[in-house]
Amino acid sequence: MLKSTLLTAVTATALTFSTWATAQAVDLQFYFPVAVGGKAADTIKELTDGYMSANPDVKIDAVYAGSYQDTVAKAITASRGGNPPQLSVILSADMFTLIDEDLITPFDDYLTTDEEKEWLTGFYPAFMENSQTGGKTYGIPFQRSTPVLYWNKEAFKEAGLDPEVAPATWDEMVSFSEKLTKKDANGNVSQWGVRIPSSGFPYWLFQGLAIENGAILANAEGNKTNFDDPKVVEALEYLVDLSTKHEVMAPGIIEWGATPKAFFEGQTAMMWTSTGNLTNVHDNAPFDFGVAMLPEKAQRGAPTGGGNFYLFKGASDEQLDAAVDFVQWITAPDQSAKWTMATGYVAPRPATWETDTMKKYAEGFPQVLVARDQLDHAKAELATYQNQRVTGVLNDALAAAITGQKTAEEALSEAQKQADAILAEYR
């Protein structure tokens, strides 16, 4: 009788504990974009599964949401419909837009211990420029990047150039490209010297040229742009001249997504693209290639880019606590190293680069260090309130100049007037 009573009590206790554990289980929905080739989506799933294995009381539904533009649109639509994700990776440059829409909450409110606060100080300052405002941290750097220059060493050697040396200045990029561009007797080009994409988000690569010329496209408060700065105009004139004057880059709009393939197939000897494409190039280029910082004019420089983690309003405290814990885990050195090696994105914390794993990886693949070292010269990606509209205005201006519809000065002057009208209410 006593044994029976004891068994009943133990069973009841077990059922009570099971019910409590089920009640305490936390479900998270996590949106993520993939903007480059390679193993990004598979690695996100592996990392998410790894976290859930170590934390069985947390269930994470990792939803591939398409491009960055698709992801922010889906997150905003879901939030307006009352069903926001608890966590999402969205462009760092969309921080002001998400704040303006009142969709996100700062991480600071969920970092209470000294250890957690110290964790927040461990990211590269260049990445935090697009992650903090008004004394609050709204974004945590994750799949962050800078644009870099890739070059085909075999093409360099064939053109009589040192295959180990990339162009370091604007003038050198032109002179190298002139030697690398291949034309037949009829003027048909089989290999261009350089390829700088101007579709998708052309403002980002163009911002590299502006920074190199000593210009900043927008202020830190996100409420004023400098599109008509003479240094910005000069940068756009240089970009246009690569096609029209120097004839070393294909004319017209150059597709972002097709650029790595054009590089692999020998259609261009150099290309500008994200360091997030590094693993894709490493795995698919049929030739030796180099990676270099963007060439300078007045200075070295490049914009930061890529995505941050954001916490969305509408979640419970338990969900947000779990989301913050997941973010801390996935940005920790071991997980961050795995992500960087799988994708080429820049590990956003110096601690990751100090791991034996990353040191060994960098020894065998030193190109991975270029974007990290370029952070010393990097500036925040163009980010303003009404960011989609403002960058859209600049993208249209770039397209008008590239396609010859307007001069660089005309296009950027009109873009500045439109941006001023959009941002007036935020000043």
TrEMBL record:
Family statement drawn from the similarity comment of this UniProt entry: Belongs to the bacterial solute-binding protein 1 family.
The UniProt keyword set, sorted, is: Coiled coil, Periplasm, Signal
Principal localization?
periplasm
Write down the Pfam families for this protein, in alphabetical order. SBP_bac_8
Q: Where is the signal peptide?
A: 1-23
Cellular-component GO terms for this entry: periplasmic space
Judging by the UniProt lineage, the source's domain of life is Bacteria
Localization, UniProt: Periplasm
What InterPro entries would the database entry show? Answer: Bact_solute-bd_prot1 (IPR050490), SBP (IPR006059)
Q: Give a yes or no for keyword Transmembrane in this entry.
A: no
The protein's name: ABC transporter substrate-binding protein
The residues forming a coiled coil are 368-425
